[in-house]
């Protein structure tokens, strides 16, 4: 009984009411506007110099690389011009030591070596052809222009973009910490390492993965209007949307095409409300914050994204384990003296380590509707070394995980809803009954059962959207958007050379 009461108390602390959602939407709109007006605000609202979204007719062979968090992806994309494409890709985990390397060069040299491997593996003919050509041609890079792969570089960290292939790193997030890289142009860092390996590759565009998601979605699902927003809910969270140039008040330093009257804005919404005006803050959010690499920053992301949800859950579970009134994950068959006090958790369980609980198990918990919770209990044993957990204990874990996931989905609706309102498209008489398209990507939104339905539920209570408006918002998965999206931006950039 004590356990049940404690769980209810924890679950209740993760509740985020309809009123909370509406307050947060108002604050989100305010912070968006502030970011469009000047630099140095909580939400950076970064101009991307991309001034339109594709319509599905684009063609050509491009490369794309993606440094987004947990993995580095390298791919080549053949755009077929009919809203479809073919692609080939490699994916490699970023070695942990490179995420906190002494110099930026160490990380970027690794990335260039992976690009080389990819070319050798998948484009060996083109690649050798390039190498032969290089010996006979005297262009600055040593390659004929038509033999150089244009590459979009998806780099999903806060960057001050000053041109389509130029941008300096503002700060690291998601567990990266290489101070040497701050303030440097990340395209130049990568190009330097590519050139050292004599690869026929030009870093043509600096792409945020959210912008890529938006472009990919617009290419694949062209409606009358294209997509209005691309959003990521993976290791981190962020969104990019199409804004009217007239609302973008801060000065721009680079060149861009003004004819469309629009520009894609990378919101960097992970930093929404770093001041905690409207974001919820439980004691577990506070505990996570205290031990995080970047206290005070990415406060929204820390309540929404895959990297953090598991850690919030872990901290709540640890509290329960330390609570003398509660018996959780204890050996009920131990001798009568210590009955209920011997733990069934292995000493080196991830439950006892910071970041030791992967958010993926929250999906397992959510998915498990079995009367015995057999799947979740097995997962607790396999991934967290909790041996033969009782049904009640697994249920406690499931309820807390659900509360944290639900809060994250409702907070996600705040960002999506605010941006849909910002575009004004729901009220545009010309778009009556047209869907308002939103492309999403990331393991959380892809794999967490019920994440999108929970977003919709919260969207429908937002003033100015309501149930009818929520029905018109079409949230669609865009898989590998950072690949094809980056290729599309490289294509746009090549056109501007
Ligand atoms: P990235 O954002 O790094 O490109 P992903 O979109 O795959 O990559 O997101 C990885 C994050 O998603 C990790 O934080 C991981 O804990 C979390 N994750 C992985 N699988 C799942 C899952 N099935 N359910 C919920 N979260 C997951």
Automatic annotation (TrEMBL):
Q: What protein am I looking at?
A: Phosphotransferase
Q: Where is the Hexokinase C-terminal domain?
A: 229-492
Cross-referenced InterPro entries, in alphabetical order? ATPase_NBD (IPR043129), Hexokinase (IPR001312), Hexokinase_BS (IPR019807), Hexokinase_C (IPR022673), Hexokinase_N (IPR022672)
EC nos: 2.7.1.-
Please give the family membership noted in the entry: Belongs to the hexokinase family.
Q: Which GO terms describe its biological process?
A: glucose metabolic process; glycolytic process; intracellular glucose homeostasis
GO MF term set: ATP binding; D-glucose binding; fructokinase activity; glucokinase activity
Q: Note whether Nucleotide-binding occurs among the keywords.
A: yes
- Identify one Pfam family in the record: Hexokinase_1
Q: Which domain of life is it from?
A: Eukaryota
What cellular-component terms does GO give this entry?
cytosol; mitochondrion
Query: What Gene3D superfamilies is this protein classified in?
Result: 3.30.420.40, 3.40.367.20
Q: Would the keyword Nucleotide-binding be found if you checked this record's keyword annotation?
A: yes
Q: In which pathway does it act?
A: Carbohydrate degradation; glycolysis; D-glyceraldehyde 3-phosphate and glycerone phosphate from D-glucose: step 1/4
| Annotated Hexokinase N-terminal domain residues | 7-219
Q: What class of enzyme is it?
A: transferase
List, alphabetically, the PANTHER family matched.
GLUCOKINASE-1-RELATED, HEXOKINASE
Q: Any idea which UniProt keywords this protein has?
A: ATP-binding, Glycolysis, Kinase, Nucleotide-binding, Transferase
């Amino acid at each position: 009984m004590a356990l049940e009461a404690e769980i209810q108390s924890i679950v209740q602390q993760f509740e985020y009411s309809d009123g909370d959602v509406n307050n947060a939407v108002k604050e989100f709109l305010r912070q968006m506007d502030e970011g469009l007006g000047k630099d140095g605000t909580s939400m950076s609202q970064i101009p991307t110099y991309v001034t339109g979204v594709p319509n599905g007719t684009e063609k050509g062979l491009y490369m794309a690389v993606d440094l987004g968090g947990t993995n580095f992806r390298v791919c080549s994309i053949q755009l077929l011009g009919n809203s479809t494409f073919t692609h080939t890709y490699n994916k490699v985990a970023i070695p942990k030591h490179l995420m906190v390397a002494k110099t930026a060069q160490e990380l970027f040299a690794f990335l260039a070596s992976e690009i080389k491997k990819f070319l050798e593996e998948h484009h060996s003919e083109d690649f050798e052809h390039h190498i032969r050509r290089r010996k006979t041609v005297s262009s600055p890079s040593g390659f004929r222009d038509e033999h150089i792969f244009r590459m979009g570089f998806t780099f999903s960290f806060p960057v001050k973009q000053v041109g389509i292939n130029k941008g300096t790193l503002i700060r690291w997030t998601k567990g990266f910490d290489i101070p040497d890289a701050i303030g440097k142009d990340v395209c130049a860092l990568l190009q330097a390492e590519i050139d050292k390996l004599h690869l026929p590759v030009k870093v043509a565009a600096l792409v945020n993965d959210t912008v890529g998601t938006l472009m990919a979605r617009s290419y694949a699902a062209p409606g009358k209007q294209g997509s209005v927003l691309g959003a990521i809910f993976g290791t981190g969270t962020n969104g990019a949307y199409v804004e009217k140039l007239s609302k973008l008040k801060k000065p721009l330093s680079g060149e861009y095409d003004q004819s469309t009257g629009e520009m894609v804005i990378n919101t960097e919404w992970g930093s929404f409300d770093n001041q905690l005006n409207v974001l919820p803050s439980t004691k577990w959010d506070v505990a996570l914050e205290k031990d995080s690499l970047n206290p005070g920053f990415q406060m929204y992301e820390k309540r929404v994204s895959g990297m953090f949800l598991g850690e919030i859950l872990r901290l709540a579970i640890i509290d329960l384990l330390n609570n003398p009134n509660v018996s959780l994950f204890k050996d009920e068959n131990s001798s009568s003296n210590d009955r209920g006090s011997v733990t069934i958790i292995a000493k080196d369980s991830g439950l006892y380590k910071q970041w030791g609980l992967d958010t993926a198990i929250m999906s397992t918990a959510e998915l498990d509707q079995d009367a015995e919770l057999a799947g979740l209990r097995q997962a607790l044993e396999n991934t967290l070394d909790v041996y033969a957990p009782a049904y009640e204990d697994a249920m406690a874990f499931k309820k807390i995980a659900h509360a944290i996931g639900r809060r994250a989905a409702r907070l996600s609706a705040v960002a999506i809803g605010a941006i849909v309102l910002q575009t004004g498209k729901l009220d545009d008489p010309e778009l009556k009954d047209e869907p308002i398209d939103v492309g999403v990507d990331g393991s959380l939104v892809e794999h967490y059962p019920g994440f999108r339905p929970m977003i919709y539920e919260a969207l429908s209570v937002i003033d100015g959207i309501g149930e009818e408006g929520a029905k018109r918002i079409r949230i669609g998965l865009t898989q590998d958007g950072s690949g094809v999206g980056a290729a599309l931006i490289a294509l746009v950039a090549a056109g501007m050379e």
